[in-house]
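I had to read the description of the data format several times before I understood it. The format is easy to grasp once an entry is in front of the reader. For illustration, here is how one protein appears when written out as sequence plus structure tokens:
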Amino acid sequence: MDLTQSETEDLRSALSCAFGADLADEFSEDFLICLVSRLPATVIELADEWTWNDTEVREAACAEAERLLGVADMAPGETPRGSSMRRELPTRRGPAQARTPEC
């Protein structure tokens, strides 16, 4: 599955609600594709019909991203493996600074 530039921007915008705009903008395209591939078909259809910023679509995408990143059940302020969340997330800066979830 590939995402268009517009879909990628919409998805990053939707994820910014949970992760902040700066961090969501750094998610790698591979991570975004992995995320979308794990969403139910109904969510993908809604995103196609509306946008990734539709409330239901956004909530599903953010919840799945949190599961993929291992932060879904963390307490506020807690970070993965006790280190900087930014360093743990799959960003466009490369594998040296990123942990890529299994798809």
